[in-house]
């Protein structure tokens, strides 16, 4: 359980700004709370492995590690205190992402030769110009959504440090003046995979030269709306016959807010005909394959459905024949969020899944969940039926988020 006693935080709205008030001495109390997040975390280290906040047992250590190696030395202590505060209520991934976002503020301060405590309202305008002129490694501008995340993370950091260091000033960054917020609807169109891309993916993932483990993951994600961590946590006992011509698939599901170690079982019934038979046969084959390599895996990675022998792509063979061929390495592991993201990215590149403008489409695993839910909404499923299928705890997320393509009212439950 995360410790939340090391400080007393009061949120006071003063001139529409957030002010954090601490009623006890701070630095040592913050440092002591690190034991709630990781077994061996030392404040002075450049990386913190938060093993006590692990959501998914087969996630890599990197996924649950916060890195401070790219933070300029003069800012590193303050951002560590901020990170401790973030870890008390946020996931490790969200917390470490914010460290990366806030580094953009440090770049701006160094570029303008500004001291943090001298930030003012005009600094906000300069920072927005700075963000608008930043470029990614490929030369493209940052997306509006990415700049919005940077701006919000930096504002949160500034508010925190002003209170933590007891600077006698009001935050120079205003949420009301965030120029990116109004450009983003919560119903984010980009989360929905366009129909022409889905068609390309479906055709490609039916090919015989696709690695079986990735193919099985795709068709489960494509047809059963799930979070990537839920699918990767499926175990070797996930498939059971039901009646004469059906099977039940067990997918673990975790609470969206908290409940890191505990999970519930979500049961999905598929008839053993048509595409249902195709998916069931893929799972059967994956179970047999995974069982055959269990002795190759470390103890903590055994028992999961998506075990596999790590593979690479034989580029020379493809260049000569036009067919994809993969070679096996000596390494064995299990799918996790990072591996799935990397495999999907490479798949879209290798199999040339392209946008209308000819660029390679960048698909994420969570988009399949959005597509699955959205398609069911417009196919006539009620919100209650979708809640039971996806294990949403209430209808708010469904009604506010999963309406991407059509301006149509949801059916009443």
Walk me through this protein's architecture.
The chain is α+β, with helices and mostly antiparallel strands. 40% of the residues lie in helices and 13% in strands. The chain has 14 helices and 9 strands. The strands form 4 sheets. The protein has a 3-stranded antiparallel sheet with strand order 5-6-7. Strands 1-2 form a two-stranded antiparallel sheet. The protein has a two-stranded antiparallel sheet with strand order 3-4. A hairpin with a 2-residue loop joins strand 1 (10-14) and strand 2. The longest helix is centred in the first third of the chain and has 21 residues, at 92-112. The protein is globular, with a radius of gyration of 24 Å. The two termini are 36 Å apart. Residues 1-19, 185-190, 256-261 and 394-413 have low confidence and may be disordered.
Labels describing this entry:
single chain; 413 residues; alpha+beta; three-stranded antiparallel β-sheet; two-stranded antiparallel sheet; 14 helices; globular; disordered N terminus
Could you give a short description of this structure?
This protein has 413 residues and is of the alpha+beta class.
Poorly predicted ranges (pLDDT <50, ≥5 residues)?
Answer: 1-19, 185-190, 256-261, 394-413
> How would you describe the shape?
globular
The N- to C-terminal Cα distance equals: 36 Å
Number of helices: 14
- Placed side by side, the strands forming the largest sheet appear as 5-6-7
Helix percentage range: 40-55%
What is the mean pLDDT? 80
Percentage of residues in strands: 5-15%
**Helix/strand structural class:** alpha+beta
